[in-house]
Design goal:
mainly beta; 1 helix
Length: about 110
């Protein structure tokens, strides 16, 4: 459900609450996600565990349009429970490379 509209880094965002259906076995009680309005790209997600306690925060940064696809070149996940953070950054991206569907068989994927 749409909670509100809010700016992040000068960009207008929708703030959306997502709650899993009962009985689906999700590890999170809810997510709150900030989505940039004009490109529909999530730039921040808060993950709430049992008791609706905030557990993790994902922030996506340095968003670029590459081959018509919005791409976060950097992402940071902060685990508040473990006092730990992970930062990933993408140096190079190639989309639509024409990879054969044969590479995505179950047997082929299990090899790697």
């Amino acid at each position: 459900r749409l909670l509100r509209e809010e700016d992040i880094d000068g960009k207008g965002c929708y703030v959306i609450e997502s709650i899993p259906k009962k009985g689906k076995g999700s590890q999170y009680a809810k997510l709150i996600t900030w989505v940039i309005k004009d490109i529909y790209f999530p730039v921040r997600t808060e993950y709430y565990g049992k008791g609706m306690k905030l557990g993790k925060i994902l922030t996506q940064k340095n968003i670029e349009l590459i081959d018509g696809i919005w791409t976060a070149m950097e992402a940071e996940m902060v685990d508040l429970r473990k006092d730990h953070r992970t930062i990933t950054s993408i140096k190079e991206v190639e989309y639509n490379m024409g990879i054969s569907d044969d590479i995505f068989t179950k047997r082929n994927l299990e090899k790697y």
